[in-house]
Amino acid sequence: xxxLRKAIYAATLLLAATAVGSGGSANAAxxxxxxEAKGCGGCHYTDGPAKEKTIDDQLAKKGPELFYAGSKxxxxxxxxxxxxxxxxxPLKYNSMTEDNPGDHPKLSGGDVAAVTDFLMGLxxxxxxxxxxxxxxxxxxxxxxxxxxxxxxCHQYAGRKNKLSGGxxxxxxxxxxxxxxxxxxxAYMMQPEAFKPVKMMPVFAGLLSDKxxxxxSRHVASFKPKKKx
Amino acid sequence: xxKLMIIAASLALTSLFAMAPANxxxxxxxxxxxxxxxxxxxxxxxxxxxxxDFPVSPRNFTAAKxxxxxxxxxxxxxxxxxxxxxxxxxxxxxxxxxxxxxQVDGLVKHIRVxxxxxxxxx
Lengths: 228, 122
Known about the structure:
The complex is a heterodimer.
Chain A: H1 2-37, H2 55-59, H3 69-72, H4 75-83, H5 110-120, H6 138-147, H7 150-153, E1 156-157, E2 163-164, H8 175-178, H9 181-189, H10 209-220
Antiparallel strand pairs in A: 1-2
Chain B: H1 2-39, H2 64-67, H3 72-81, H4 101-115
């Protein structure tokens, strides 16, 4: 009898674990359906590798590619953003003159978790895990603001939380909540794997691996200031 | 025979002129994609990054008098290696790993069109 109880208990545990596992992938499959049904693919492609070869290819896109979204974003941030999208780029995608209209469609209810699961399942083999530990990094900060022109194109929270930096690139305010620190480094080191045609200069080959690591740590440390 | 040579020369010239605008438009596209972020679409140094906090004034390519002081080689060096290579601001990035030599040559020509100047010779 005791053995029977143990067997039933073990079987119950196994069933529960299976249900959770398949529930995750079922949710991602639902997310893919939602992504397609809502027409998200009209602006974002999700099948890699990167397709752009020319400036025209890049300019023809209406939104960023998402085929490595699971390696780029942090899951908590992505879910919140899909439910309440706020502009990340000050300017409209691919525009030099128009402000971002902030009209990205919202998701609601179960669609949020489902699409989050779908996108987080889109990962890249080019992003090595565990390389970047976010922390304040004076060298990275110096490169970001002084030695290289990063701050010329990207907004960030400067001294006393003052919004500083340029407007042509995506904002890096609170980038440490949005981006996977390891993706920042991978993107610096081999941008062609993610965005072969982009307005940002290629720094690989100009900066040392150590400096790219320092910048990645610095950007990954951009988080909301703790209230005192 | 003379007629044939004239026709051949005309054809060669026509195709040369037909190619020029295509290259120029390609170069303009490169300029607008990369350089206009800071230098502005028409080269006046008023791109979208130039807010009141921008630490330097990007070069105004339409200022012929200033642009005339630079040789083509000076411009090429700064495009390739960034502002610090000419004791200028690091806000001007090094583009050597992004642009091809042909694109850089095209940009120098395009900037000469914007400034309507020939620049320092030799």
